[in-house]
Amino acid sequence: MSRKPEKLIDKKGLRLDGRKPDELRPIKIEAGALSNADGSAYIEQGKNKILAAVYGPKEVHPKHLALQDRMVIRCRYHMAPFSVQERKSPAPSRREIELSKVIRESLEPSIFLEYYPRTIIDVFIEVLQADGGTRCASITAASIALADAGIPMRDLVVACAAGKVDDTIVLDLMDTEDKMGTADVPLALMPNLKALTLLQMDGILTSKEFESAVNLALEGCKKIYTLQKEALRTKYVNMKEVEE
Amino acid sequence: MSSVITRVKQKQIAQLVAKGKRLDGRGLMDYREIKVEQGVIERAEGSARVLLGRTEVVAGIKIETGEPFSDTPNAGVLTVNAELVPLASPVFEPGPPDENSIELARIVDRGIRESKAIDVEKLCIEPGKKVFIIFIDVYVLNHDGNLIDASALAAMAALLNTKMFNYEIEEGEMKIKSGYTPLPIKRRPITVTFAKINDVLVVDPWLEEEQVMDARLSLAIDDEGDICAAQKGGGGYFTPEQVLEAVKIAKEKAGERRKNLDW
Fold it and tell me: In Å, what is the CA distance from A127 to each residue of A119, A139, A180, A241, B144?
């Protein structure tokens, strides 16, 4: 069990891992990390290590789930038993079921669902190691996996959290800050459409603080967005060179 | 969670909203009539029935004793469960809780937990060994839209109605004494839910509006007017401006309801 540190932000205004309040953790995104999936991505954000895979569009089983005018997205967010301090039971928890739903709903607006009626896409997310902000990193990775699978999309979806820690609004909370902090606001964005596709919050914030947390998270999203595009470029530009 | 609604009606709802009107005659920012009745289930330690238009929800509180979580040895435990019982709607099916009822329970839970509505430290009997466990069970009896606001309201009203038995510790044993005390309640969060229809925000969507809406946003507001929980739902999106607009309206709406309820 980790003890609560006296202060989450030191006298110099730096956080436990030495970051400034508006600084992201180091992020590494790789498109196409798995060979079996139609599309996949791997992300590391701080100590988070997450894999996302996309299968489809494919025939719907069971058949009654099929929709006549659009495709169905199915999403499973799952944490490995060894991904957290105390072993997590592999059975889906209530938290995982809720997150699967909100992640699905954050990705749906980006996809041209009506292009593939009567089909389904499975989005599988496995958290191999968790360090706070896994839902956001999962969305960032899953969107890359969808793009990698060649699904027609309006924009990439990128997610990032902001929150309040020791009276300071900070970006991209890690586990300790999430647990010991005052508030956490995860959000997902389609940057070109300025559309928020995920917004959650827990903790207490005044409406002013809420506004600055949202704005800070939006800034974070924009930074991660360039890394997302970079990841896709790295895979597909290199591939073209090999072909040539 | 959808039943059939004709395309004609979908279009009608969307077009009306664009003109600032709603099919049931309400203004965009009007709630349906709210009725709260407390103490409806005598067997429960606390209970409340909420009618939000034709949406009907009962919340019941049961209190047990048990072990605290290892990371919070001095705090009582709060659990929220929601049941979308099959008698409430043709689209609810019997069986284990699905993602909709789990999401509903977790939104209600977050509002109460994050606002620190209950002083959980006062629910500790013996640190690390024995604490009170508060079970909040939300039971949807009739689904006519906006289950989130109705459930959050029912849960909070039931908590305010809850009586705990008195006890004392004698030689390490817990003895129940006569009489009851209310729960240690510190705050009374109020949840306000918006639907985005045709790019317009409306408050308190009813069932048919929920089937037309692009997305949903719920905000829990505490006694000081601060935000203590938020959840976006549905397969659409909000712009940042719409979210901030919703925050402003939610504070007003929560304030109005707080006044009406005398909370």
Answer: 26, 12, 22, 32, 37
